[in-house]
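Posting here for the record, re: BIS(adenosine)-5'-pentaphosphate.
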Amino acid sequence: MRVLLIGAPGSGKGTQGARIAERYRIPHISSGQLLRDHVRHGSELGRAVEPHLARGDLVPDDVILSMITEELAGAADGYVLDGFPRNVAQAEAAEKTAELNDRLDAVLFLDLPPGEVFDRLAERARQSDRPDDQEQATIQHRLRVYEDRTHPLLDHYRQRGLLVPIDANGSVDEVAARIAVVLDRYQR
Ligand code: AP5
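Prediction output follows.
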């Protein structure tokens, strides 16, 4: 099974990505988590992307494409990919790249109203040490970047017949159950 998760910051991509990975026994590949791991380990890539993450800006497309291509090379039996692509240019580049050009089963859009998104991120900020969760201005900036850069991807995948909107309101279990209704159809 090959699934992409798209949604605003805080819409539940990481949470539901983990649930999908567990249910269908496929790797959960989170572009944001991979980048944060690089920053934590102080790798060259981590040092290069740290300022982008801290500001809530997207990291350069070439950096993310080479990182994700490498990850997907080890996920031949399927994956749930959370956070990539993040803009139309990344999606188009992925379609031209052998490792990323496998047939997708579905692109799940976790649809959550902006107020709820903001509440979830504000709640996480109380416990998290993620630099991009600390300042309200940075959270607002991430939401703007999502609207400007990532939201147009919905049309890209809608036109390809892959987009499946999921109501991301409700408990983690309720959202996971809605996703399972969709993905059980694609189980191979
Ligand atoms: P990324 O890690 O992808 O961050 P994000 O999109 O801002 O998303 P979050 O991780 O904040 O939220 P989420 O949707 O995963 O929700 P979660 O499950 O955590 O990216 C970080 C940065 O990396 C980007 O800003 C950019 O710099 C860079 N980056 C990443 N990919 C890139 C790319 N392709 N190109 C360029 N740059 C890239 O849930 C949020 C909170 O809500 C949690 O506390 C959770 O416990 C809670 N929660 C979840 N579900 C529910 C529920 N149903 N009810 C109540 N609470 C819930």
